[in-house]
Amino acid sequence: MIEFTNVSFTYEEAARPALGEIDLSIADGEAVALVGASGSGKTTFLRLLNALLLPTDGRVTVDGLDTGDPVNLWEVRRRVGLIFQNPDNQLVSTTVERELAFGMENLGLPSAEIGRRIAAVLVRLNLEHLRERAPHRLSGGEKQRVAIAAVLAMRPVCLALDEPTSLLDARGRREVWEILGELGRDESRTVVHVTQFPDEIGLSTRAIVLDRGRVVFDGSPVELFSRAERLSEWGLTLPSAMVLSDRLRRAGLGLPGVAITLDELVDAIVAAPAGSLS
Asked: CATH classification of 2-230, choosing from 3.30.110.170, 3.40.50.2000, 3.30.200.20, 3.40.50.300?
């Protein structure tokens, strides 16, 4: 369980708080999309979660551990794995295999256990063929997958991702989307995913919108996108799947339900009554 209790944070010499009076909890196994316009406080939220920053006011706890207590610092960071926006900022080793081993070695895990975890995460993220490759020679999408794999291998209880697809091309973004979709369905781990892409919000089951450092929405992605009149105010737009499904309905195709992701749209088209498109 992650809890923010009346949390505020102000950077030195800032005119206003980056976050103000945040009160919320995130249950174990939840998949949360944290969204909002640039400057809304999303990255600050993640860094408070991982104890890279400490609240100016209020309290952040991870599984009951107060991030403001220096005694808890190592354990909080072990429990909350952070993925940065730019994978080059956290890849440090000469091969993919060594990159995956690096964090686990710092945890003091036995060599046999490290080997087992490396083998498992390489398979899970389809990275086996890159095992001996140098991370700096990989594509952007491959680098981000390796960065995610390195954190997953340490088995944190929470994975916090700071706009992991924002610097990737379309192919790399699709590669990471597949991982995000799988992580969102894995109830053994909490996922907090910061994004500015509406198409990624549907990969989570809960959406939290920040606006100028405050929570202005907390609910399901379907509920969020039903508030079309507020989206532009919060710096958001409808996902491409919803825009396309609306066009198909106006063309006469009887689509069941609401499609937020492209996969959901494909499923809806398949399930539409035969001959409903005029």
From this structure: 3.40.50.300
